[in-house]
Amino acid sequence: xxxxxxxxxxxxxxxxxxxxxxxxxxxxxxxxxxxxxxxxxxxxxxxxxxxxxxxxxxxxxxxxxxxxxxxxxxxxxxxxxxxxxxxxxxxxxxxxxxxxxxxxxxxxxxxxxxxxxxxxxxxxxxxxxxxxxxxxxxxxxxxxxxxxxxxxxxxxxxxxxxxxxxxxxxxxxxxxxxxxxxxxxxxxxxxxxxxxxxxxxxxxxxxxxxxxxxxxxxxxxxxxxxxxxxxxxxxxxxxxxxxxxxxxxxxxxxxxxxxxxxxxxxxxxxxxxxxxxxxxxxxxxxxxxxxxxxxxxxxxxxxxxxxxxxxxxxxxxxxxxxxxxxxxxxxxxxxxxxxxxxxxxxxxxxxxxxxxxxxxxxxxxxxxxxxxxxxxxxxxxxxxxxxxxxxxxxxxxxxxxxxxxxxxxxxxxxxxxxxxxxxxxxxxxxxxxxxxxxxxxxxxxxxxxxxxxxxxxxxxxxxxxxxxxxxxxxxxxxxxxxxxxxxxxxxxxxxxxxxxxxxxxxxxxxxxxxxxxxxxxxxxxxxxxxxxxxxxxxxxxxxxxxxxxxxx
Amino acid sequence: xxxxxxxxxxxxxxxxxxxxxxxxxxxxxxxxxxxxxxxxxxxxxxxxxxxxxxxxxxxxxxxxxxxxxxxxxxxxxxxxxxxxxxxxxxxxxxxxxxxxxxxxxxxxxxxxxxxxxxxxxxxxxxxxxxxxxxxxxxxxxxxxxxxxxxxxxxxxxxxxxxxxxxxxxxxxxxxxxxxxxxxxxxxxxxxxxxxxxxxxxxxxxxxxxxxxxxxxxxxxxxxxxxxxxxxxxxxxxxxxxxxxxxxxxxxxxxxxxxxxxxxxxxxxxxxxxxxxxxxxxxxxxxxxxxxxxxxxxxxxxxxxxxxxxxx
Lengths: 552, 311
What we know:
The structure holds two protein chains of two kinds.
Chain A: H1 7-15, E1 19-29, E2 35-45, E3 49-54, H2 60-67, E4 75-80, E5 83-84, H3 87-96, E6 97-100, H4 113-123, H5 128-141, H6 157-169, E7 175-179, H7 187-199, E8 203-207, H8 211-214, E9 220-225, E10 228-234, H9 235-240, H10 242-247, E11 279-283, E12 286-289, E13 298-306, E14 312-321, E15 326-331, H11 337-344, E16 351-356, E17 359-360, H12 363-367, E18 373-376, H13 380-383, H14 389-399, H15 404-417, H16 433-445, E19 451-455, H17 463-475, E20 479-483, H18 487-493, E21 496-501, E22 504-510, H19 511-515, H20 520-524, H21 532-548
Parallel strand pairs in A: 3-8, 3-9, 6-7, 7-8, 15-20, 15-21, 18-19, 19-20
Antiparallel strand pairs in A: 1-2, 1-4, 4-5, 9-10, 11-12, 13-14, 13-16, 16-17, 21-22
Helix pairs in contact in A: 4-5, 4-6, 5-6, 14-15, 14-16, 15-16
Chain B: E1 6-9, H1 12-43, H2 68-83, H3 88-104, H4 109-133, E2 141-144, E3 153-154, H5 155-179, H6 184-193, H7 198-226, H8 236-266, H9 283-305
Parallel strand pairs in B: 1-2
Antiparallel strand pairs in B: 2-3
Helix pairs in contact in B: 2-5, 2-6, 2-9, 3-5, 3-9, 4-5, 6-7
């Protein structure tokens, strides 16, 4: 264990500033015996902007749940504004502390956005006119004024996340605590969050693995590991020390890339559609194979899909997926990426040509497509439903009707591939986010599909889990389709990128060209390069820190 | 033993005609259903989404501009008055009133028809079974079909079944103007002002919101099973898989309730949903209510005084 750099606590004492939160030897153990917090001593001052970081399962969420009195004190003490927590103080405190949890659906429990956002201010006892103004202003701030009287189930994930944030901001909190605020959001929505957080004047505590997002928001970093505070220093100190980052699974330097900075590639194709056709169409109902072309595994030609409520999902998609390719599928939230994946899996029946190994997909082929196309969903918790890891991974092969011996062999191989050997009897529900993601991949791999589709594989994973995942995905010898906003994964894994916007594939070009494409922002508002300057600064810090510690 | 007043022997020709008509209508229905299913298969997957009760709450109409408490307070007793009707004729008039109400409330016809379609299977069985199985009454008309001499068709039974069907349709259609012309929270506020406990109101509100969230969770989990080849069969393996599926849903639902409660606590919840002063009932709302109750009473009086086609 490290000696904790307690500069912040000392400063607070010297300044004579009263701590907003003062935690002393706080410990917490869950009913199942898991020790989540051990002897936490921490002082949080008014106006602090803290990045609370650490591996998955290090105790970050448990700590912030204490700050709002959601978990009872077991041992140690917690003072808010110098006072011990009692029920009266707790009620007042909760009205001054806004917590944004990961899943926005937990925050949106009313039947319209207006009521959801008004819930907090009304509990504060504000006047009707004041509440009305607050609701309208906060929803306008997050760009959702046009949906003010809509129920939350009519919103996309990104919109829900913003609505939940508006509901917290409307309480005008003194302290804002955010748990993974930008997980699964596209860069455009991430920027909205960042701008609002920059403007926030109060005390800010953010749990996030994305240190680039935190870089110019936080001035202090508290690093948790196994329920202990391992470091408590300035954020710049944290990012400049690569060894400390690596030790706590936070080393994101493996993803150092210079997206958008590499302009060496010719941009001739940046405004072209690259819809590769391997077939010619005599009419809408016939197609003939071009003899010389190597037959792709999957092919869509003039493919359209409408949702049952008549909303357009996919418009005139033309796409080929060749053996061994790794394709990145990018676009704003709601662009149609997951819908396209569902079409490729045969879950959505669209109009147009859908060819599998050069043959138009018929009902029988569609029914068996799951054997050839595997999918790892965005939220791996939704994919896992068996009581043990072995059963989870064996489910697919068992449905394929394989022999017991073959199933056992495939399960062992798949678990080994994702470095989960020995986890056979573990309960998936009790595993960490990173482990569950790997288990979901193993469940798909055990079916040995020709194509594997991964939807946001890196969302909510700590950098160490991401690095592990990168290694696993790199070693997969199959055709891969990655749906992601993660530029590093796109660059590292894919050789072709499809950009989707409003249900259309607007770009289909080599990944190198995509990385140098400065014009995308004009089309779909996605700026994949906005973190580059943070990255450059962090690299500089690490370089100088490295030189400082190098013996002459 | 009751003696029928009139016995009509239906000719074989007419029986065959009726049978042919029924068969033709069934075939026509089946063909149009298949055609629709085929067209749907081409372009879309079936719409299993849960219809929202208050989808038309934003419109304006006689019913939309009516205070929810007054509206529910009068339409609800009106439905009970309809239940009290005995004559199929006046039940048919009540059904016409309901149809006009749907028309004047600017709600799409499909919603009403879907509501009726959901009940129609059960109610059509009434129309088929009750006439053949109702007890004989003194002086009633009985139809005897060829080959079914031992199973007479009682006209009084048919009228009874028809009355039930008409009443059910009239009330089912009335639900749309009653509950679908205000937003759910406003409608529930109306119920609250009529004395329904707040705890139940809050439970309904939360249930309504999270039905959609759980539906999404179910769909996502089921899709993940389907992409791994799961097909529901009538075997042990399917039962085991469905057991796991339901168990996991239960756990995630339990987890969700805890998290929602925590999110509510974090925003100052202390056991009571905050509301501003409730809307006041105006004179014109009371006038509408009075009008509607009068209509119900009028139907009931006419039913008793001028019984057309009595049972």
